[in-house]
Design goal:
Blueprint: H1 2-17, H2 30-46, H3 55-61, H4 66-69, H5 71-83, H6 87-94, H7 96-116, H8 120-134, H9 137-148, H10 154-182, H11 187-190, H12 192-207, H13 221-240, H14 250-272, H15 286-315, H16 321-328, H17 333-345, H18 351-370, H19 378-393, H20 396-404, H21 411-450, H22 458-466, H23 471-509
Helix pairs in contact: 1-2, 2-9, 2-10, 2-12, 5-8, 5-13, 6-7, 6-21, 7-8, 7-9, 7-12, 9-10, 9-21, 10-16, 10-17, 10-20, 13-14, 13-21, 15-16, 15-20, 15-21, 15-23, 17-19, 18-19, 18-20, 18-23, 21-23
Length: 527
């Protein structure tokens, strides 16, 4: 995988170097700068999923319950969502290169601390710090990649970022399961250290001389405080709502009130402040608004697939964590093969048609998943995931290009950060909704199926007679089958709904209007 990525980066950068326009910063080695930026972001995106399959082992090793261990994921996501909108402010204040380098180094340091944690509370604290420092990494990587590539090669830069977004979450569960089974869960964090130092060093050397337009903007304390309280409360509410029975819990009610008040104040303040933490006025741009809306909704649906599939494979079909990861892994094959084709030739097509085609493919794949039953074999799942990759390959790059197309200069970094922040919140919301719907649907289906297990059913009487006339023994034996089938029915209904959602989204992307060529040369480009 590393060799393939390196070869691809070299090909892309060599092509870009040949057409460098005068007056824009170019690193001494565009290929090394691309590898450094991509590796740092790959490490960050990978860490969002690599710990998921290790939670049972972590809980047992640190003496915590399964419910408590989920905070390993929640703390990371909450902190990341809070710092994502600060990308624009941090870029203006300190410079994009410095923010990226320090974020990668601190992320590596806190990864080491996570691996050395001796209690769950210590691990959760360092995971929160990990999430906090990595929040700006992804949008700043997008901004830096766009700025160092010539204008006619920026599609290639966005295609590389899109490939990372797709491949890293797939590698995460497979790598996490293998490392945990073969070595120790602590190595899923230790492994970040050498890669982080390598990535930060490359970017510092290659881009340290990049001239950036800095200004000592004041800190929007009202925006910061209301954002932390609002997003933090909302994220915890979404994560714990299903466990606490939603609004039947006083805790959830209080969190909802805090989130509503704080986020309302935050939106009003950011729209009226002269130097907002997050420039919500970017939504005045038609393409940014339409592209961001499509990104939020489509990524929420895609994230729902990524969440439900391993749960279904492990809880319903009895797969191990490693094998469920292997079944999902083929989704990354087609994006890897098509990434640079999309980056090179996508501009020749109307990007709305490419995005609509990707939504149609993903919708049809959801209907395919919705037709599965408990007898489905491994290769059918893997092949379906492989075809899903076709939709993903044509989704991220066109959407990113559309939403960034009518932004200029520093707006690119701010817009990228805002879109990524909203995408993260949307994915979190999707996690809570689809988890609740799947479990709730399973309960309803279980009740409907169990109604037929009674003495008046001829088939039941025959089976009970074969077991010596013990109805309760028969009911206990068949309950596991009913539970499995009820969760399968709920799974099928959910995927049918996701498929309909993708087809409805085709209309959203047509709210954008061409041309989709970026107006500016990129944020903070040296003159």
């Amino acid at each position: 995988m590393a060799g393939l990525l390196t070869k691809a980066f070299l090909m892309a950068s060599n092509a870009a170097t040949a057409t460098q326009p005068f007056g824009e910063f170019r690193p001494a080695s565009l290929s090394l700068a691309t590898i450094g930026l991509s590796l740092g972001t790959f490490m960050q995106v990978l860490d969002m999923t690599i710990a998921n399959v290790s939670l049972p082992t972590i809980a047992g090793n640190l003496g915590a319950s399964q419910d408590q261990s989920t905070w390993v994921i929640t703390s990371f996501t909450v902190a990341q969502a809070i710092t994502l909108p600060m990308t624009g402010f941090l870029s203006r204040r300190f410079g994009e290169v410095k923010v990226f380098v320090w974020a990668v180094l601190l992320f590596s340091l806190f990864s080491l601390c996570c691996g050395l944690a001796t209690s769950l509370s210590m691990l959760v604290m360092f995971r929160a710090m990990q999430g906090a420092v990595c929040g700006p990494m992804y949008p700043i990587t997008q901004s830096l990649m766009v700025s160092i590539y010539p204008r006619d090669k920026r599609g290639m830069a966005l295609a590389i970022i899109s490939m990372i977004t797709v491949v890293a979450p797939i590698v995460g569960p497979v790598a996490g399961g293998w490392i945990t089974d073969s070595y120790s869960w602590r190595w899923i964090f230790f492994i970040n250290l050498p890669f982080g130092i390598f990535a930060a060093g490359i970017v510092a050397v290659q881009m340290g001389k990049r001239i950036e337009q800095l200004r000592r903007a004041r800190i929007d304390w009202v925006g910061v405080i209301t954002l932390i309280l609002g997003v933090g409360s909302l994220q915890v509410l979404l994560d714990k709502g299903n466990d606490l029975d939603w609004f039947h819990s006083h805790t959830i009610v209080v969190l909802a009130i805090i989130a509503t008040i704080c986020l309302s104040i935050w939106v009003i303040w950011e729209l009226t402040d002269d130097e907002p933490l997050v420039d919500l006025r970017l939504f005045r741009h038609r393409n940014f608004a339409a592209g961001t809306l499509a990104l939020i909704l489509a990524f929420a649906l895609f994230f729902s697939i990524s969440l439900l599939l391993p749960l279904w494979l492990q809880n319903v079909l009895g797969y191990t964590a490693l094998w469920s990861g292997l079944a999902a892994a083929p989704i990354g094959v087609i994006p890897i093969l098509l990434t640079f084709w999309v980056g090179k030739y996508a501009h020749k097509f109307d990007l709305r048609w490419l995005t609509a085609f990707s939504f149609a493919v993903m919708g049809l794949i959801c209907f395919r998943f919705g037709s599965f039953n408990t007898d489905v074999d491994f290769w059918s799942v893997a092949l379906t995931e492989l075809m899903l990759g076709l939709g993903i390959a044509l989704f991220f790059m066109p959407i990113l290009t559309i939403l960034l197309s009518d932004l200029e200069g520093q707006e690119i970094a701010e817009g990228s950060g805002s879109a990524t922040f909203l995408r993260t919140v949307g994915a979190s919301f999707a996690v809570s909704i689809v988890t609740y719907l799947w479990l709730r649907g399973g309960v309803v289906s279980h009740a409907n199926l169990a109604e037929h297990i009674n003495p008046f059913n001829p088939q039941v009487r025959e089976n009970v007679a074969a077991m010596g006339g013990h109805l309760q023994r028969f009911a206990a034996g068949i309950n596991g089958v009913i539970t499995q089938q009820s969760m399968q029915i709920s799974f099928n209904h959910l995927f049918d709904g996701l498929g309909i959602g993708f087809f409805l989204l085709i209309g959203v992307v047509w709210l954008a209007k061409p041309p989709f060529t970026p107006k500016g040369r990129g944020p903070s480009v040296g003159h």
